[in-house]
Tryptophan--tRNA ligase (Paenibacillus macerans), 327 residues
Amino acid sequence: MKKVLSGIQPSGKLTLGNYIGAIKNFVTLQDDYACNFMVVDLHAITVPQEPAALTEQSEAVAALYIAAGIDPNKANVYLQSHVMQHAQLGWLLTTLTSMGELERMTQFKDKSAGKESVGAGLFVYPALMAADILVYNADLVPVGEDQKQHLELTRDLAGRFNHRYGDYFTIPEPYIPEVGARIMSLDDASIKMSKSNPNPGSYIALLDEPDVIRKKISRATTDSGREVKFDPENKPEVSNLITIYSQCAGLTIEEVEKRYEGQMYGPFKKDLAEAVVSVIEPLQQRYREIRESGELRQILRQGAERASEMAEKTLQDVQRLMGFVVK
Ligand code: AMP
Ligand code: TRP
């Protein structure tokens, strides 16, 4: 069975962008692939995290995975820090990575821009991400558009290792959805929807109350036109809302356009809000059940145990190939 790996950082609240760009696809893939879905807590600390918030958010993201439909009996759900081999392989891959490659990463440039002091962890972040993927020899990595460059680097590092030490790593493929790989902010369609945006009106958090979601959508920026038409270049705001609608209602872009032909933005937005709420409300219900059940720690333990087995084998193989004296 082919292998899938992905992860989400437990830094702040997850948004509808995370759901549409990533988690929704995790759920689809779990039936046909051997899947590992992590909460990447080691990546989260590349920017300062308050310890209590890190604990809470890590559990929240894991519970959201399951609430969204990931079945922990089909896929491994766990915390990155519980599988030591990620960090160990991460170090080995760091030594194969050049400064120039890391300097070119747009996520690093964005996150370090204007900062007086930038942590070294933020800089070497992509080598750890490569290790996350390669430690399972994953074939496919479901991510949103913004992770494409990190995936490219992972492929380069795998190729470099194979060239230097012998053909070992699978070169992973990104799995980026055709629609919804880049959900934009509700107040500014030139930037992606992000949990780190200081304006909460710009994003829909997966744990926002339904009425808050309705309000945010009714206030979302549109344009001075009146056509519900998908045209990202000339109508970026409306096109973003159509994308969200299509993903939440299970319709194609064309079907959404057709449904609102000759109608104004008002009714479209109203229905959009209900489409989003109809996805999020049951998810929140399951989320609360999981958090209250106390099962989460056991699920995470079991996921980490299964993942560690695979990861340990890879790490030993890699160490042997590189010339380390294996225990
Ligand atoms: P992060 O929140 O940066 O850990 O991202 C977790 C996953 O969600 C990654 O696969 C991202 O590419 C994806 N993602 C984050 N924001 C968006 C967005 N606005 N639209 C689509 N996918 C997103
Ligand atoms: N860098 C990813 C993000 O910010 C998170 C991540 C870490 C990841 N390791 C990964 C994604 C491995 C896919 C595979 O979204």
Remarks:
- The first strand starts at residue 3 and ends at 8.
- The chain is about 55% helix and 5% strand.
